[in-house]
Amino acid sequence: MSNHLTVLSQLERLGFPDLLLWLLTFAVVYGVLSQAKIPKSAASRAIISIVSGMLVLMAAPASLISVISMMSTNLILIVLGLLVLIVFTEASGVRLGKYEGVHGKKGQEPTRIPKRFYEEHPLEVGLVLIVLAALVFIGSGGLSLLGFQNINLGQSSLISIGFLVAVILAVLFLYFEKGEKEE
Amino acid sequence: MIDVAFDINSLMNLGLPEIVLWLLSFALLYGILSQAKVPQSGASRMIISLVVAFFVLFNAPVALVSFLSSMTSSLVLVLVGILALVILLEVAQIRVAGGEFEILNEKGEPTGRKSKTAMTIFEKYGYVFFAGFLIIAALIFVNSGGLQLLGWNINLSSASTTTIMFFIFIILAVLWMVAEKKQKLNFQNIF
Questions:
Q1: Is A15's Cβ below 8 Å from some Cβ in B?
Q2: I want to staple A84 with a disulfide (CB 3.0 to 4.6 A). Which of A32, A36, B57, B137 is the partner?
Q3: Does A31 contact B44 at a Cβ distance shorter than 8 Å?
Q4: Is A94 helix (H, G, I), strand (E, B) or coil?
C-alpha cells in the first residue's frame, strides 16, 4: 500500500520537464511503431507507447532530461552551422559534378547536370555527419548514461586516436591502390 | 546541468529571445523530420519537434541566443559580400570555358561536331569555392562561440596552430602528388 502511495506522490511531483520527457518517449515510440506497423492494432501501439513513456519516467528522469536537453541544443547548433554553409553555397550557386561525357538530348546542344556537394559526394558527407552525431552523443554525456563511464578521453589520448585513424586510413589507401594495380 | 525544476512559472517568464529560440528549434526540427518523412506519422513529428524545442530552451538559452545573434550577423555580412561578388560577375558577364561536348544527331549518335560551353566561376571552380565557404562557415561558427557551447573547449596555442597548419600543408601536398600520379597512370592506359 505504501509503495502505491509513493508512486502516486511521485506522479504528483512530476514537473514540466518530466511531462515533456513522457511526451517525447510517447511520440518516438508511437511514431516508430506506426512506421513499422507493428502491432497492426493502433490501440495496442498507443498503449505500448504510453507505458514506455511511464517506464522511462521511472528510470532516472533528471539525468536523462539533462542529457536529452544538452543533445537537443548541440543538434540545433550543428544544424545551424551546416545551414550557414548551405546558405553560402546556394547564394553563390556553387555546383560540382563532372561535365565530361555528358551528352544532350538527341540533336540538341548538350545539357549540363550541375550537382550540389552532398549530391556529388554523399558517402563523404554521410561519414562526416556520423562523426558529428557520435561527437554530439558523447559530448552530451550519452556514454555515461549508457553505463560506459570509464571512457575518459583527454587531449593526449585524442591526439593518439587521431594519429591511429590517420595510420589506418593510410594503410587502407595503400591496400586499395595495390588492388587497383593487380586488376 | 539544466534546471529540472523548470515549471509553468518559468514558462510565463519567457521573453522574446527565448520564444524566438523555441520557434527556430521547432521549425528546424519539424522541417528536417518532414523532409526525411521520419516518422511517417505527422502528429508524432509535430510532438517530437515541439518537445525537443522545449529541451533546447532548458539548456542555457541566454548563451544560445547570444551565439545565434552573433552568427546571424556574421552570416548576413558574408552573404552580402557574396551577393556583391555575384552581382559584379553577372554585370560583367564573366564566364569561363566549361569544356567541349559532342553533339548528337536525331538517333543519338555522335556527329563529330563539338560545342563549347560556358559557365560561371562558381560552377567551374566548385571545389575551390566550396572549400572556401566551408572554412568561412567554420570560422564564423567558432568565432560565435559554437565550440564552447558544444562543450569542445579547444585552446590552441600559436605553436600548435603552426604545427597543424604544417600538417595540413603536408596532407595537401601528398594528396596533390597522389592525384598527379593517378592522372599519369590513366594517360598511360589510354595510349
A1: yes
A2: B137
A3: yes
A4: coil
Of A21, A42, A60, the one marking the end of a domain is: A60
Question: A60, A76, A106 — which closes off a domain?
Answer: A60
Determine the residue among B23, B40, B101 to mutate to test chain A binding: the one whose Cβ has the most chain A Cβ atoms within 10 Å: B101
Place of cell 587531449: A155
- The secondary structure of chain A in percent helix, strand, coil, rounded to multiples of 5, reads 75, 0, 25
User: Are A103 and A151 part of one and the same domain?
Assistant: yes
Query: B76 and B28 in contact (C-beta within 8 Å)?
Result: no
What does the pLDDT look like over A60-91, one tens digit per residue? 667 888 888 888 888 998 999 999 999 998 88
Collect all residues of chain B within an 8 Å Cβ-Cβ radius of residue A80: 28, 68, 71
Range of the domain at A129: 61-183
What are the sequence ranges of the domains in chain B? Answer: 1-60, 62-191
Looking at the 3D structure of chain A, how many domains does it have? 2
Residues A44 and A65 in one domain: no
Q: How confident is the model at residue A159 (pLDDT cuts 50, 70, 90)?
A: confident
- What distances in angstroms separate CA A182 from CA A176, A178, A179, one per listed residue? 10, 6, 5
When mean pLDDT is compared across A46-55, B50-59, B160-169, the lowest value belongs to B160-169
Q: Between chain A and chain B, how many beta carbons pairs sit less than 8 Å apart?
A: 200
